[in-house]
Amino acid sequence: MRGPLIAISVLSLFFLIGSIPVYSNPEVTIDEKTSAALTEILNRGCDSGTIKALRELGLEPRDTVPWLIDVIDKNEDRLLRIRACEALALIGPDAAQAVPVLTEILQVREVLKDWWLVKSAIEALGAIGSPAADSAGPIIYEILIENADYEEVARLPRDPKGIRSYPKGDREVFNAACDSLKKNGADPIALLMNELESPQPYAGINNDIYGQRKFDVIDTVAKFGKDAVPYLQGLFEKSDDYAAISNCLNLVWKMGPDASELTDTLIALFYRLRAVEGDDPVAAMQASNAAGFAASALQYINPDPDEAVPFFIELASDEDAELAWTAIYALGHIGDERAIPILIKTLDDDREYTLRLYMGAESGAPPKPLKYAAAYALGRIGPKAKDAIPKLVEMLPADEFDVAYALGRMGPDAVAPAVNALLSDNPIVRKNGARAILYMGSDGAYAVDHIIPFIKQETDSEAKDAAIRAIGSIGRAALDVCVEDPISFLIKLLDDPAGDVRSSAAYSLGMFGSKAESALEKLRKLATEDEYIAKNIYPVREAAKTAVERIETNWTPKPKGSTPTGPRPLCPT
In the CATH hierarchy, which fold is given to the domain comprising 8-186? Predict the structure, then answer.
């Protein structure tokens, strides 16, 4: 996440810095013998029996606080320091005089690499409670943010002899920081939202000059999932701070389905922002951009289709091509068949849009006509949109991935048009026909008898490569319906002089799993001896290695398409 914890004073505005009550009992002396006994108690672990064990030594728990502070501050035994923090957590408010040392160790970078020690210190501060731990609030808040991008992975058993560092954050530290803030009267989500809503929320914080702080805060709020929705809802309904709204829309995008309850709110926000008028052109532009962000974010939250689909259908015809593209893409993402008529109509729309990534950032790609976005969206919907096939066939002369993808996703009814495309005099049409079959999966099984002769005579390398890989995409579904054995054909291609052909053939053989055992001898040889190099790698070797592994383990690809049934499609002979 971020670098060292500095400039924390900015965040102290969120906390009431309380005075720390100090307790010490001059009548209690912990001699060497008592110290050894305390050490033994800590080494057994801290639990409900620890307090009882301390009293059996004739000590009240709060009488041990100075000794525990000394252990944390000076002892080099990592596990003993952790146990001392855990003991302070058990003692609770009576351990208030330990706050300075606990706060101090949380600002040492080497300590912050040790998730267990950090977690234990934070839990101790939370247990000590307000106002004793208020002075540690800003530090714990920063640690919360630093550990928000933890990975959900299985944790290894704790190793008391070694320090495990998690550069992407730690879940237990994150949870401890969250709980500690709550115990001391702070609302973590409210604090984070306050940063996102602030007019200049990142100036001076951690010397952040690149805006990374914003994304760190967004990542942190996203970890709270549905609990953050009420905070966002209130802001979207009332705020006129367009920068803050945009920041929080980035957050909605990050939250995904956790924000699904915001469907109506985002639609209302869009119309509210779209209606902004006035003499301030900057504000009007900010509102317009935020409206686009609202529409874009809506598609990623798994919205209520009965609310979102009519909204996007209306927006798909908007005079603003950028908004129309957002709506078209969203309709494909949602996959609702109610969108099919407007998407087919848009296949004639030549207005251009600029491809954007992550909430409005331009990708750098050249502008494209909206009709190709509509084609892609229809492909996402799949066979229910098969009425688009005639128009998609008309679009095959365009060298566009979206058209081939859409045709290939139309199911068995698209097999004959795709096979017909293989016979075209136009190399782009042939390539798109081969790509379409590639995207069909098992739906294209009946096309294999046409693909094999096509590969034998095709001169365009891209079309040939797509056709070879199409056999692999169809896979085992082709074995029972083809005249020529596709596996035997692919094995022959392993001897082709063109490296790309050998690579694609190896890839496709792997897609047949154990059915391609007869190819293992050649594939093993290619995996170690093939000399073809492209972009500083050996693509044939890599494809052959993968194929051998898949064949030996009887790997089965995720089903794509359906099992061929019924009569063969009317294809040219």
Answer: Leucine-rich Repeat Variant (1.25.10)
